Amino acid sequence: MKKILSGVQPSGVIHLGNYLGALRQHIEMQKNFECYLFIADLHALTTVKDAELMRKYTYELAVSYLALGLDPQKTIFFKQSDVQQHAELCWIFDCITKMPYLERAHAWKDAKEKGNKETSVGLFNYPILQAADILLYSPDLVPVGKDQKQHIEMSRDIAQNFNQIFGETFKIPEPFIKEEVATVLGTDGQKMSKSYKNTIDIFAEENVLKKQVMSIVTDSTPIEEPKDPEKCNVYNIYKLIADKEETKELAQKYKKGGFGYGDAKKLLLNKILEQFKEARENYKNIYPKKDYVYGILEEGGKKAKKIAEAKLIEVKKKIGYL
Ligand code: TRP
Fold first, then answer.
1. Residue 10: CA atoms inside 13 Å, Cβ hemisphere, count?
2. Is 40's C-beta closer than 6 angstroms to any atom of ligand 1?
3. Which residue's CA lies nearest to atom 15 of ligand 1?
4. Which of 74, 178, 191, 318 is catalytic?
5. What is the rounded CA–CA span in Å between residue 127 and residue 116?
6. Is 233 exposed, middle or buried (0-12, 13-18, 19+ CB in 10 A)?
7. Which atom belonging to ligand 1 lies closest to the Cα atom of 129?
């Protein structure tokens, strides 16, 4: 069975974009792959600098995965900070990676272009930690969103670089990117992201969810007139969660006229509530069970650590520490 590994940062409330871009895929893949999935809380420290929030986002991410069907018997589910080998291998990679190479990273360049002059060393180093995350576990595939493509390429480069210097040690990972879910647009038509405050939060209370859906920006075409579905954000979000038949039906309603954006939003809201009905109930049930949730992460951490530890010993021998 092929092995996959992925990580998700605990950096905010879980929204539809996270679900379609990452969570759904990870949960589907546990049927056919040996799965490793971790909460990237070391990476999250580049943005989350509040202990309460770090705990809350980490916990909510764990509950979200479990509510959506992550099976801890099938997936080794853990917290990155529980396995210190990630940080240790990161340092080793730091010493074989050149500064100008890292300066080419998109995330870093973007941060600088946004006028963020005082970015942290951690943010600069982000791709190296990600390489350590991946290479410790020798996965065949790394399922990620399109925005992570460069990070996976860097992990491959770092693996090759290490192998060249110290001898064959790391397996070269392949990215696994589903193109069709590349970008999920938010309620304002920009990429769905908590930093734009344009998210649809799948586990939020119904009234909050309703408010978010109703706030989707549309143009001012009057109800009677036919509309172009592809240009409408409500339709574009609907398309991502409804099946082909339902999507076709909605497109026809748009084209016929006499159907307003308000009607479309109601349909979308109902679709979300229907689609996530079970997950939302699970979420409510699991949330209070702190021992259960933390217990799963702890167990997962122990299993992950065994693998990471063995790999790091191999690395230390190659370097001459052992
Ligand atoms: N950088 C990834 C993101 O923001 C999260 C991540 C950290 C990750 N380490 C990883 C993803 C290792 C895949 C593999 O989405």
1. 28
2. yes
3. 8
4. 191
5. 18
6. buried
7. 9
266 Cα to the center of ligand 1, angstroms: 34
Query: What would the two tokens of residue 319 be?
Result: 């370097």
Q: Distance, CA 9 to ligand 1 centroid (Å)?
A: 7
- CA terminus-to-terminus distance, the chain: 32
* Residue 119: pLDDT band with limits 50, 70, 90: confident
Cα separations in angstroms, 192 against 19, 74, 115, 136, 257: 11, 30, 22, 31, 28
Find out whether the beta carbon of 72 lies less than 6 Å from any atom of ligand 1: no
Distance 258 CA to ligand 1 centre (A): 45
Q: Name the active-site residue from 112, 210, 305, 316.
A: 112
Is 231 an active-site residue?
A: no
59-94, pLDDT tens digit by residue? 999 999 999 999 999 999 999 999 999 999 999 999
- Cα 258 to its chain centre, rounded Å, is 39
CB 264, CB 246: distance < 8 Å: no
Distance between CA atoms of 85 and 89, rounded to whole angstroms?
Answer: 6
Take residue 196 and report the two structure tokens written for it. 């734009």
Digit-coded pLDDT (tens) for 163-175: 999 999 999 999 9
CA-wise closest residue to 150 among 102, 86, 87? 102
Distance CA 73, CA 142 (A): 20
Atom of ligand 1 lying closest to residue 43 CA:
7
- Give the Å distances, CA to CA, from 61 to 162, 171, 237: 33, 29, 22
What's this model's pTM, rounded to 2 decimal places? 0.94
* Count of all residues that appear for the chain in the document: 322
